[in-house]
Design goal:
132 residues, mainly beta, Lipocalin, 9 strands, 5% helix, globular
C-alpha cells in the first residue's frame, strides 16, 4: 500500500494567493499535477500528485475535489476527497485525511512544502504543481 498521503492524519494545504477573493477561488478549478521529492521517514522518495478541483463556491470561497498520488515509475492510487477554503487574507486551506502543505500561487503554478506527522516516521517534501 502506498504510504504517502494514505495515512490517517489530517492533510491541510495552505496556499498563498494574491489578495484573495472570487477570481482566485475560481482559478483553482481544474486539474493540478504536482511533482515532489523529499523524505518519508528515512527513505528518499519522488512522488506525483494529481489534484482535481471539481466544485467551487464563490459565495463561501470554498471548493471540493479529489487527489491521487503515485511514486516515481508507479501508477496512481485510489482517489481521496479534498475540501478547501480561501480566507480573506488569501490563504487557501485544503483538508483530507493525511498531512499538511503550504504553497505560494504564481500564475498557473503552486510551489511549496508537504509535511506529514506520523508517530513512526514523518514526511517532508517540496512540491511544484502546475494547472493542466
Amino acid at each position: 500500500m502506498r504510504r504517502i498521503l494514505l495515512i490517517t492524519l489530517p492533510f491541510v494545504a495552505a496556499v498563498v494567493v494574491g489578495c484573495g477573493g472570487d477570481s482566485e477561488i475560481s482559478s483553482l478549478k481544474g486539474t493540478w499535477i504536482g511533482t515532489g521529492s523529499g523524505f518519508d521517514g528515512s527513505s528518499y522518495q519522488e512522488m506525483t500528485v494529481k489534484m482535481v478541483i471539481t466544485e467551487v463556491r464563490e459565495d463561501s470561497d470554498t471548493f471540493l475535489g479529489q487527489k491521487q498520488t503515485k511514486e516515481k515509475g508507479g501508477s496512481y492510487g485510489p482517489k481521496t476527497t479534498i475540501r478547501g477554503a480561501i480566507g480573506a487574507d488569501g490563504v487557501i486551506s485544503i483538508t483530507d485525511d493525511d498531512g499538511y502543505a503550504f504553497f505560494e500561487f504564481s500564475e498557473d503554478t503552486l510551489e511549496g512544502q508537504y509535511l506529514e506527522a506520523n508517530p513512526k516516521a514523518g514526511t517532508a517534501k517540496n512540491y511544484t504543481f502546475e494547472q493542466k
